């Protein structure tokens, strides 16, 4: 009781103040909520329960700003509406109008054009000469930017993903989900505020290869962003390409190597069976939802077993093989130095030369041996044989000479 006493003398003053500011009574009806998207026009509804012609009446729209400050939004006073007066808050100049043809039906609604986030707040529509009626409207002008996703860091076992939502109003709830829609546990979101807008960053670490998505939800305005997708490749499993023969004539074939939905962007390479890289056309790369489709075509002119490998960062895929048999290929046509036929001919010639040389040496040795035998026999006849003979080791010396 004691505490309330000092306020008593102020009561009439407070009442008067309230009347003047239009803040006199509480809202006469439940606060209605109006949601608008930034940049669009919005109607704030208001009409007294007794439908009187408002053409010659007075009504006033105010907005309660921060710290209970009031902004003039719009005033209608017998055809001399506030719009043309300096009392209107700068924020609303040129953007607010009433419905002229609706006035006679007791409709005091206004339209705010090209709404901004800053227009969000509590509005009141009231009739100063009928202070018992006051309509309250809560306007929320939503800004709903799409989330943006990136890989902050990655090893072969895990990947640190970040989802960023910039300049959102109201503050969004940001979530990471896997490809099946399960919500992933994430770190604490980092929320910052610039002016009226919120920016939220949410990190999560994933350990599986999957297509992940981030979604921003603004429950207050029943808005959910489109998901932002990101493909994460882990555990060294590069996507194996698929290979096809697109066209084939009797002396050439057009081969195609293709990888779909891969991330990071794969690099494709064609090789022949000896592992030589085959020159190919420029790859055709297209991106969708954060992953890549890559096509690499090449024309080959030889029968061989060709392979295509996809590399993603340091990881190489298993090769995809394709066997190309060209019916029109003439085996003897290739006479260039590198061709196997050249080598075969060369080896054959060398082989024959070796055989000939061998035969010649054999015949010569044989003759030499015969002569030595004869020599020995004549020596044996003249003088008797000694205990040791150095005849054997002397043979090579003779052959060389
Ligand atoms: C007032 O007029 C506007 C514009 O025609 C309309 O959208 C709104 O529903 C009306 N409000 C009422 C309470 O009749
Ligand atoms: C996300 O991770 C990066 C790199 O570790 C860090 O700098 C940043 O503060 C993290 N953000 C959040 C929201 O946790
Ligand atoms: C092509 O070579 C690979 C190994 O390099 C082998 O697995 C595959 O069977 C071969 N294909 C044909 C048709 O020779």
Strand-and-helix sequence, N→C? HEEEEEEEEEEEEEEEEEEEEEEEEHH
The average pLDDT is 80
What small-molecule ligands were found?
Answer: 2-acetamido-2-deoxy-beta-D-glucopyranose
Output the CATH topology of the largest domain: Immunoglobulin-like
Shape: rod-shaped
At the fourth level of CATH, the homologous superfamily of the largest domain is Immunoglobulins
Number of strands: 24
Please summarize the sheet with the most strands. Answer: 5 strands, mixed
- Tell me the CATH architecture of the largest domain: Sandwich
State the strand order across the main sheet: 1-8-7-3-4
> What structural class should be given to the helix and strand makeup?
alpha+beta
DSSP strand content: 35-45%
Helical stretch count? 3
Computed Rg: 47 Å
**Percentage of residues assigned to helices:** 10-25%
How many separate domains make up the residues? 3
Secondary-structure map:
Blueprint: H1 11-21, E1 32-37, E2 42-44, E3 58-64, E4 70-77, E5 96-98, E6 110-112, E7 121-126, E8 134-142, E9 148-154, E10 159-168, E11 173-177, E12 190-194, E13 197-206, E14 210-218, E15 223-224, E16 228-232, E17 242-248, E18 253-262, E19 267-271, E20 284-288, E21 291-300, E22 304-312, E23 315-316, E24 320-324, H2 340-382, H3 391-400
Concise synopsis of the structure shown:
With 401 residues, this protein is an alpha+beta fold.
Top keywords for this entry?
rod-shaped; alpha+beta; 401 residues; 3 helices; 16% helix; Immunoglobulin-like; binds 2-acetamido-2-deoxy-beta-D-glucopyranose; single chain; disordered C terminus; disordered N terminus; four-stranded antiparallel beta sheet; five-stranded mixed beta sheet
